[in-house]
Amino acid sequence: MKLAAKGKEEPSLAFGGQAVIEGVMIRSKKHMVTCVRQPNDEIVTNVEEIKSVSERHKVLRLPFLRGIVALFETMYIGIKGLYFSANANLEEEEKLNPKEIVLAIVVALALAIFLFSVLPFLLTIPLGLGGVVFNVAEGVIRLAILLLYLASISLVGEFRRVFQYHGAEHTAINAYEAGVELNVSNAKEFSRFHPRCGTSFIFIVALISILFFSIMPDLGFFMRLAYRIILIPVIGAVSYEVLKLSDRYKKSKIMKVLLAPGLGLQYLTTRKPDEKMLEVALEAVKKVNNLAETSQR
Predict the structure, then answer these.
(1) pTM (two decimals)
(2) What is the total count of domains within the chain?
(3) According to the 3-state scheme, what is the secondary structure of 110-177?
(4) What's the CA gap between 222 and 212, in Å, rounded?
(5) Does a structural domain hold residue 172?
(6) What domain range includes position 242?
(7) Among residues 35, 53, 207, 236, which one has the fewest Cβ atoms lying within 10 Å of its Cβ?
(8) Who contacts 291 (Cβ-Cβ below 8 Å, separation ≥6)?
(9) Considering the domain boundaries, does residue 57 fall inside one?
(10) SS3 letters for 17-43?
């Protein structure tokens, strides 16, 4: 597939990705490409083939089941991208081993579950609310904690650069989806916001969790707390379907209104990238696009 001039043809291949340390990871259905800017200013690239379990088991492609699969596969692929990017910027004797990366991820996940699932519930209990009102209040507290967390880490230099690469990832994908020639000059004309971003997904999760916790039976404090952890994959699966639906109808005025809060959160999770960052992101998009085209022939 040849990239067309702007407005003439929209590419049919949908890509996703994430920012990594000094770089960007872009993935298609069958490949992931991680491009990283090294201290010597060179761009190093890592290409890996993706073999989804849903390709081998058709039942896992069904709605909601595919969301759970996507949740865990996205996490696994993201960890691999972070592992490569971390070692690409370290001296040989400083390089991390897989066990160190796994330990760091486990600690980060445990912290995330506490901050965004357990803590909001514990902070809402003293308010003495009940029913749906309790769950709405908990959802508001959860979003407040998220906003405070994002605003705080955005002040740290290392995280700010990751947020800039996040903006570069969105900008490159927006340029690709518009069908323009993928170069820095063209890409600079596009937004650093994207409706399929994981930030929008987080906002959808917050809303879906209010609904789920409202319909669950009240079996006491510990069971209510357990719901906040046990139902994470289920809420993620439903949120995944909502995100896919929102992308299908993204041109709808109603959907644009519903997506606005999630896009608003991206003001915190993305920053305007510089040209070198855009160059890295575009390199990743072009590489994964070439691989995807080749696999379609």
Answers:
(1) 0.84
(2) 1
(3) HHHHHHHHHHHHHHHHHHCCCHHHHHHHHHHHHHHHHHHHHHHHCCCHHHHHHHHHHHHHHHHHHHHH
(4) 17
(5) yes
(6) 16-296
(7) 53
(8) 28, 30, 31, 33, 47
(9) yes
(10) EEEECCEEEEECCCEEEEEEECCCCCE
Q: How far is CA 115 from CA 103, 112, 210, 240, in A?
A: 18, 5, 16, 21
Within-domain flag for 235: yes
Give me 241's structure tokens: 């379907």
Name the nearest CA neighbour of 151 among 141, 140, 139, 163: 163
Strand 23-27 vs strand 16-20: parallel, antiparallel, or unpaired? antiparallel
Judge whether 287 and 33 are in contact, CB under 8 Å: yes
For residues 286 and 6, the model is more confident at 286
Q: How far apart are CA 144 and CA 209, in angstroms?
A: 15
Would you call 182 helix, strand, or coil by DSSP?
coil
Q: How far is CA 161 from the centre of its chain?
A: 16
Q: Which of 21, 264, 272 is nearest to 147 (CA)?
A: 264
Q: Residue 266 gets which letter from DSSP?
A: H
Tell me whether residue 9 is in a domain: no
Question: Which one, of 245, 83, 279, lies nearest residue 169 by Cα?
Answer: 279
CA-to-CA separations, 132 to 137, 214, 232, 234, in angstroms, rounded: 9, 5, 19, 19
Tokens read off for 293: 């085209």
**What is the rounded distance in angstroms from the CA atom of residue 252 to the CA atom of residue 121?**
35
The answer to whether 40 and 286 have CB atoms below 8 angstroms apart is: no
8 Å CB contact between 176 and 3 = yes
Convert the pLDDT of each residue in 54-97 to its tens digit.
777 788 788 878 888 888 888 888 888 888 998 888 776 677 77
Structure tokens, 15: 């890509």
Phi-psi region of 65 (alpha: psi -120 to 50; beta: other; left: phi over 0): alpha
Question: Quick one: tokens of 245?
Answer: 């639906």
